[in-house]
Amino acid sequence: MFNFLYIATAIYAIIGAPSVGKTSIINELKKDGEETIKEVATELIEECIAKGDCEPWLKDNFQPTIFKRQLQTEAKLLAKKPSRFFVDRGMLDNLVYLEINGRKDTKEYREIEKKLHELDVGNRYAAIFYIEPYNNKNFSLEKNPIRRESTKEALALGLKIKAAYEKYYPVISIPGEMTPKERANLIKQKIKALENVAA
User: Fold this and answer.
1) pLDDT tens digits, 149-190
2) Kind and range of the H or E element at 17?
3) N or C: which end of the chain has fewer CB within 10 A?
4) Where are the alpha helices (DSSP H) in 34-88?
């Protein structure tokens, strides 16, 4: 079930593997006048690298810091009471990253899991959009200081993230063989259709 009738501000999560085009879509939505939140993890990693910490993800508090910052960023925007906004990655991504990094049986995982339960994560988002990889089978991820996964690892990560949200939401897939602008427009078209059904 989509949640238009239950929340004052509709939050739309843009999810998927690294480098599949989420940020490009967010940028296009912002150009169209939509309220958006960029990926917090990338922002934090860039800040750490600028300070000389080239592997901040190895620290115990890395994922909780991302989680806390994302929650604070969303709270600030929610306080302005926009009708809707789009976020680059949702809250459940934090648990997936902890799991793939072998940190599922940890205090930080349990604390984030508890907080997500308190936030009622299954009703937090109006809809979830899963971004398919660019060019689908021809997708190739180029590593950099922020994107450290191989193409195979990135694709597997994307599917794990998708599965995490499918426990709570009917995830909507956005094709890979489209430009960022076309993808952004498709997302808005799908939202309009969902709103018409909910009305």
Assistant:
1) 778 888 899 999 999 999 999 999 999 889 999 999 999 999
2) none
3) C
4) 40-50, 62-79
